[in-house]
Design a protein that fits this description.
Elements (H helix, E strand, L loop, with lengths): L2 E3 L9 H7 L8 E3 L7 H5 L6 H9 L9 H12 L10 E5 L2 E5 L9 H19 L3 E6 L3 H10 L5 E8 L5 H8 L6 E6 L3 H13 L1 H7 L1 E2 L6 H17 L7 E6 L4 H12 L3 E8 L4 H8 L1 E2 L20 H8 L4 H12 L3 E2 L2 H10 E5 L2 H15 L5 H13 L6 E5 L7 H8 L20 E3 L3 H11 L6
Helix pairs in contact: 3-4, 3-10, 4-5, 5-6, 5-10, 6-7, 10-11, 13-15, 16-17, 16-18
The chain binds pyridoxal-5'-phosphate.
Pyridoxal-5'-phosphate binds next to helix 11.
């Protein structure tokens, strides 16, 4: 399997190299040059298999020759053994025909663990084999960073630097990044918003001298291996509700468009998905773009669902690539326009996007109402992101098709908003109940590329000594 860039002008790579690289050298994102197909029968036999076995069958065709059967099965087993639920991604019924896919039973209580735990194992395996060393730099609105630090802490061949917007992540998110004691992981609190953090990370990748000097690797949701790991739970949940014999729809709380794009890949592989609904909070650029064709960032307004406070949605580029019929030059041009303020999607491409995606948004008040209402009617405490999804799903639902809303984080990750809305304090699971007592270690950095690069050069590699 070969991987090509959405901008059509970067080296073609195999799975392992694309995974270790992250961002393509032309600024684009890697995609497989063809999408493996699951037939009706291939999907039907997934029924009743373990999450790990489904993960193997979905992901293996994308790996090329990178790993043997047994090696990859071992990687999957290790990735998910630390999850707090035997089903890994259990489905709960909320209402007639409406289901919640709980993706928050991993070690840092957000869906990011599904991909990050997997990528941690994959990196470790690859780097051990090659003797290489890499420096992972990532931007986070809270959950990617905690999941990455958890997945890579203590690994010999990896340094991890996570930029997060100072003062704009929840206390649990911050503590999950700042309390691991291993010296190879670093939480960097940067002045600015998530989009600023993500922009500095992209700058580092485009600074080839720095990139090559430190062996930069990316694990943001632009990393194809992460998207791929997320395809799996679309299959397990749809099959649990009767696929391939009947269609299901999904609503996905969306920020960087990685999670919902995994659903799009599942559909392209042959999973009978009726609708994929993009749910945004008040930072609703994706909803506006799908409604009006205009993609123009106009500043982030902090919300109670901070992991979706994003205006420059990286993985949307992958959807645009398909909507523009795989025309890398057209995508490169849109991204140039974006750097100068925004772009409008062509009529043909907009139509293609709308064939795959619906969208809706949810205000802060509606988010709070949804948490309160679902707590009262179902006993389910939703995190604010999941509540955004549930609100949009309820508004858009076709009663004839089961709807699965992705619950992207555990309510205890956002206790203040959940308690204010529901009157109930969501407790942390037992296994991390001492989080508030552990000492923190944070480095403050300015929103300045040179300063950040210097800091990384100084601190990296210390873990080896
Ligand atoms: C990252 C995140 C999202 C958004 O996912 P994308 O893949 O960036 O669209 C939603 N909810 C939570 C809790 C998250 O951590």
């Amino acid at each position: 399997m070969q991987y090509i860039s959405t901008r059509g002008d970067a080296p073609i790579l195999g799975f392992e190299a694309a995974m270790l690289t992250g961002l393509a050298r032309d600024g684009g994102l890697y995609l497989p040059d063809n999408i493996p197909q699951m037939s009706h029968d291939d999907i039907a036999v997934l029924h009743g298999l373990s999450y790990e076995e489904v993960a193997f069958r979905i992901m293996y065709p994308y790996l090329g020759e990178s790993f043997s059967d047994d090696e990859f099965r071992g990687i999957i087993a290790r990735a998910y053994e630390g999850f707090g639920h035997a089903a890994r991604a259990p489905l709960k019924q909320l209402d007639q025909g409406h289901f919640l896919l709980e993706l928050f039973h991993g070690p840092t209580l957000a869906f990011k663990d599904f991909a990050m735990q997997m990528i941690g194992e994959l990196f470790q395996f690859s780097l051990k084999r090659s003797g290489q060393r890499v420096c992972i730099v990532g931007a986070t609105s809270g959950d990617t960073g905690s999941a990455a630090i958890e997945a890579f802490r203590g690994l010999d061949a990896v340094d991890v630097f996570i930029l997060y917007p100072h003062g704009r992540v929840s206390e649990v998110q911050r503590r999950q990044m700042s309390t691991p004691t291993e010296s190879n992981v670093h939480a960097l609190a940067m002045d600015g918003h998530f989009d600023d953090c993500q922009a500095r990370v992209k700058d580092m990748f485009n600074d080839f001298e720095f990139r090559d000097a430190v062996g930069l690797a990316g694990v943001n949701s632009i990393n194809w291996a992460r998207v791929l790991a997320q395809v799996v739970y679309y299959f397990t949940s749809a099959v649990a509700l009767g696929a391939p014999h009947r269609k299901v729809s999904f609503t996905v709380p969306t920020g960087n468009f990685g999670d919902i794009f995994a659903g799009y890949i599942a559909k392209k592989m042959g999973l009978p998905i009726d609708r994929l609904v993009v749910a945004t909070n008040q930072n609703d650029i994706l909803h506006r773009c799908l409604s009006t064709s205009e993609y123009r960032p106009d500043g982030v307004i902090p919300s109670i669902s901070p992991s979706m406070d994003i205006q420059v949605s990286s993985n949307f580029e992958r959807a645009l690539y398909y909507a523009y019929d795989r025309d890398g030059a057209a995508v490169a041009q849109l991204m140039d326009e974006l750097a100068r303020g925004g772009f409008s999607v062509s009529q043909g491409a907009l139509q293609a996007l709308r064939e795959s995606f619906d969208s809706g948004h949810c205000s802060e008040a509606q988010t709070m109402d949804t948490i309160a209402r679902l707590s009262a009617t179902t006993g389910e405490l939703l995190c604010p992101h999941s509540a955004v999804g549930v609100h949009v799903a309820e508004a858009q639902r076709d009663p004839a098709v089961p709807m699965i809303t992705l619950a992207t984080a555990h309510p205890a990750k956002f206790p203040a908003a959940v308690e204010e809305a529901s009157g109930q304090h969501p407790p942390l699971p037992e296994r991390m109940s001492d989080l508030y007592e552990r000492p923190e270690r944070i480095t403050r950095v300015e929103n300045d590329l040179g300063a950040i690069e210097t800091l990384i050069k100084e601190k990296r590699g210390k873990s080896a000594t």
